[in-house]
Amino acid sequence: MKKFTKNLLLLSGILLLAIPEAANALPNFARQTGKSCVACHAQNMPKLNAYGRHFVLSGYTIYDDQGETQSLVEGGDVPLGLPSVLNASVVLNARYIKTSQNLDANSTDVVGTQRGELQVLEGSGLYFGGRISDNVGGLVSLTGDPSDEYDVVFNGKAILSYEELNGYAGVSLYSTQTNGIFSGMENFNTGLNSPIRQFENANTTNAAQATGIGRGPATGVQAYYGDKNIFATIGLTIPSQNNEGIDAGDSLMPFGRITYNNTLGDDWNIMFGAYVFSGYVTASDDSFNATKIDASSKLVTISKEGYGIDLEASGSIADMMTMTTINIVMKNIVDVNPDIALESPSLQQTDNKASSIEFQINPITPLGIKVAYLNYVNNDDTATGKIGFVNPHDFNAYSLGLNYLLRQNILVNIEYGYVEPILNTMDSYSDFYISTALSF
Predict the structure, then answer these.
(1) How far apart are CA 370 and CA 192, in angstroms?
(2) How does the average pLDDT of the chain come out, rounded?
(3) What span, in angstroms and rounded, lies between the C-alpha atoms of 133 and 131?
(4) How far apart are CA 203 and CA 197, in angstroms?
(5) Is it the case that residue 378 has pLDDT exceeding 70?
(6) How far, in Å, are 46, 199, 371, 390, 411 from residue 359 at the CA level?
(7) In this structure, which of 134, 279, 368, 396 has its CB flanked by the most CB atoms within 10 Å?
(8) Which secondary-structure segment (H or E) carries 313?
C-alpha cells in the first residue's frame, strides 16, 4: 500500500508537469523495448497488433533488459530516473490534399483544398514517452494541427499500471486537444482513439471520426483492466482542454467501454466491443474554444449522449495479412444551449449516426491496399456544422488507399475518396491525399 501511494503521488506530479497525445509509430518505444517498430504495429503504422496492445496496457513501461531506469537517489524506493536511452522522437509529416468539392451545404465556397494544398508542418511533432518508474509511464506530444483549427496541439497522459490476473489494471490521467474522450486508454484500431485508425482521411472512412466521437478535446481520468481477452474501462471526462470557468464537480461526463478479444485458429484475432457516454458540462464558450475568457464570453451548456459497437478482425488470407474494422455509431447527440457554433469537432450541434467498414490486405509485408465504405446520417436539420468536422448533410463515401513502408521509420500513404451527398443541392465530389511520415 505504501508503494502504491508513492506511485500515485508520482503519477499526479507527472500530470501537473506534463503538457497535454497523439502517436504514430514512435522510435523512442523501439529504443526502450529493444524491438523494431513492426513488433508493435500491424500492417504498417500506426495500427497496433497484439504485442502493441499489450505494451499500451502496461502504460508504456515494458523495457529492454539493458535499458532499465535507475533511481536518482541511491537506495530510493521509487526508481525514477533517466533511462539509458532518450525517450524522445520526432515525426515529420508532409501531405498534399486536394478536393473537387465546389460548395458546402451552406453554399459557401471551398477555396483551400479545392485548389490543392501542401501541408508540411501540420501533423509533425515532438513526442516524449515511455516508462518513468516500475508502474508509471506516459506520453506527451507537441504537434502542428492538421485541421488548421489551432497552430500547435498539446496532448498527454500519465498512466499508473499494475500486472493483475494475467493482464494489466491501471488508471490513466489525460488531457488532449484532438484525440477524444477515449484517448486515455484505448488500444484497438477502430477509430475511437484518433491516432489508431486505418485511413488518414478519417472524416469519410471511419464512423467514430466522422461523427466526432473519436476526436476533439478532453480532460479526464479512467480506470481500466485489459488482458488478451478482455478490455474494460470506465471514466469521467470534460470535453475541453482549457478548463477555466468549468465547475468540474458538476460537469463530469461518465463514459464506458468493454471489448471481448479472442484468437481463432493459428493466426486470426477477433474483437467485438461496445461503448457509451452521457452527461453535460456548463462553461464559457471560450473554454470550449480554447481561448481566453473575457467580458464577451457566453455561458454554454453542452449535453452529450451516445453509444455504439465496433469490431476488429485480423488474420491471414492466402498467406497475406488482412485487417478489417467496423464501427457503428448508433446514437450521437450533442445539444448546445444556446445553439451557437463552437470550434471543437466533437462539440458541434448534431444528432448524427454513422457506420463504416475498412479493410486492408498486404500482398507483401510493406505494402498495404485499403478500401472503406462510410454511411453518415445527420438527423438534426438545424445543425450548423463545419465541412471537415460534423457534417450537416447525409452522405455515402467510398475510399481506396495504398501505404508503403519504405523503412521501418518511413511511411508513404496515398488515398482517394468519392463522396455522394444525399442532398439535391450538392454534387458528388472526391478527395485526394498523398502523405509521407518520417520518424526518428
Answers:
(1) 19
(2) 80
(3) 6
(4) 11
(5) yes
(6) 15, 10, 5, 24, 18
(7) 368
(8) strand 299-317
